[in-house]
Amino acid sequence: MRKFLYRSIAILLLITSISVGASRVAYTRPGFMMKIPTSSVQKAPYLFRTGFGTELHNFDPFNSAQGIYFDMELGRNFTFGFSSVQTADTTSLALLGATGYTPPVEFGFHLQQRVYTYNYISLSVGLQDIVFQNAESNGGNGLRLNPEELSFFAVISSEKALGKYHLSTYMGFGSGGFSAADTISNMTGGATDGSTSGDEATSQGTKAGVFIGLIMNTPYLEKWGGIDLVGEFDGTGINVGLRIPLTSDYRLNLGFTHIEKLPDWKSRYWEGHPGITLGFDMVVPRAGGRSLPRGLGGPSPFPGAQLKLPGTGQFEPLSSSMDSTLALADFAVHTIRDSMKMLTNAMRNLMVQLASIQQQSQFLEDSLLAMKLNRNVDEKNMNEAMRHLSRSLRYFYTGDYRVALQEVESALDLNPNIALAYARRGSIYYKLGDIQRATINWNLALRMDPEYDDVRNILKALHENRLKSTSVVEE
């Protein structure tokens, strides 16, 4: 294992020795920012991520720092990464291009542990820049640890969706490279072997500092994950950048470091000099977890769903057991929803039937009330008609046949179905000498009441010409 580690270090040093660009080069640290660490609520959907970054500090003479990196998330929320960079020339005569100083090659390890998550907030702690420096430029041999670069840090993140945009913010504190420092080397002197001379003005800040950053993921080039706008304060200066997806697995990184010092680009050079940054990275997705274009399934900033990791275009895939559980839950929800729809339809049918029954009941009540009213009217008319018939009989006995006939007509107007009224009218017409009308009314009375024997006997006697005046119906 130790031999393998040494061989790996040797290979990386060989690769970077052909490069030319200071420690903490932009886009060569684990995470998605330029120089500060990041944290996320979800496990990374890729096996590993790798790439390179370059900072151009001057063009005449050409001065740059560049490096490569590799990082991956291991089990139990632990992230491991390493980087190898060749630093820039920060000696006093760097702007003249004639120092003869060869910047050292650095090889660093980066360790990070996610310790807490809640909804869309996560907290991670770690150790960055366990830097081993190539000591040949200082007259030594092999690698030596540079404790000044060692950085303990803690970072808290927040990931939220803002419509089609996604904002991730990071805030934390750290030591080493995160502390405020600005060492200025004048052009009027200085050693050529990389050491500082007496005319160098050195201003050292505290050994710890704070950092803050944000990534705004936009919907541009959405099918590959969207373009990211990056901004950060890394403890020593302000960096801004742009991450452009070439595919869902590859990104081109652009930006500026320490833009607040851009006015001093030509006048001096120091550690933390402003620079133009260029980088490229790629990810290798996990099996069955290919990078998804943004918008397929919709990224969510909350745990328990596919989460778009900032700056990657990647989504956190659900595990197979969680996927099966969600499928069963979705089936149960759809079953309950269908049952509720059936119950709703059955209830609606019952309500329609109930309304129909209520309508029929109201119709029957109205019919019964109408029958009661008609019966009351019929009873009233019958009583009134019987009073008219009673008066007609009284006038008949007194011989006032015309008035008696009027009373019978009044009774028939109130109730035309009284057989006695027709029999009475027939008797009145008989007394008035109108045998034909008398016969018609007697027949009407017999039709209404076939059991009316008195009327039948009168008609029979009339037919036999033996009807006497005293035998007419006078009841």
Description of the molecule:
- The chain is α+β, with helices and mostly antiparallel strands.
- The protein has 2 domains: 2-315, Porin (Beta Barrel); 375-471, Serine Threonine Protein Phosphatase 5, Tetratricopeptide repeat.
- It has helices at 2-16, 320-397, 401-414, 419-431, 435-448, 453-463; strands spanning 46-59, 62-74, 78-86, 105-118, 121-134, 143-145, 151-162, 165-175, 181-185, 201-204, 208-217, 228-233, 238-245, 250-257, 269-270, 275-285, 308-309, 314-315.
- The strands form 3 sheets. A 12-stranded antiparallel barrel has the order 1-2-3-4-5-7-8-11-12-13-14-16. A 3-stranded antiparallel β-sheet has the order 10-9-15, with no helix packed on it. The protein has a two-stranded antiparallel sheet with strand order 17-18.
- Helix 2 (320-397) packs parallel to helix 4 (419-431).
- It starts with a helix and ends in a 12-residue tail after the last helix.
- The model is unreliable at 8-22, 182-206, 290-309 and 311-316 (pLDDT under 50).
